[in-house]
Amino acid sequence: LGHMDPAGGFHARDKTRPFLPMQARSLDGGATWEVQPTPCQTPGGRGLSADEHMNTEMHIKSLLDDENALPTCPGGIDFTHPDFALMCARSGLLAGSVSWFYYSLDRCRTWQGPYRLPMFGMTGIAARTDYLVNGPDSCMLFLTASKADGEEGRVFCAQTTDGGKTFA
Prior knowledge:
The protein has no helices and eight strands. It starts with about 20 loop residues before the first strand and ends in an 8-residue tail after the last strand. It has strands at about 20-25, 35, 85-90, 100-105, 110-115, 125-135, 140-145, 150-160.
């Protein structure tokens, strides 16, 4: 969630203020919704998937340049758990972007993660939360990678068959 600035251009946002991770939850089948802070650990306590909307000094990417800054998932996720949810995040849209994910087994009351997604041989990965559960240990992520010119736009699928430990 960002702050509005009518002079902010195409996206009328204030780039001098941080974005805050928020989520909406319904406890009555979607009749009503409550917006609340997302109860997850973000790298450096910064906003998720918002670097392009903030000034450089607030970017999350600078915290993730070390490949070991985010752990890999130990696996063991049951993607068919009735209270399962998955959330992806990214440091940007262009070459150099890295992505990670969180999962919840309690309908988003808490989140496990962040867990780094591999680069898949690409120069940048811009994950959005878009997935298909295939079985207890199997889930397919629909991701975006940087094109040869460094811009966003190459879509692909990555799949885990070991409960989130590895993706290919």
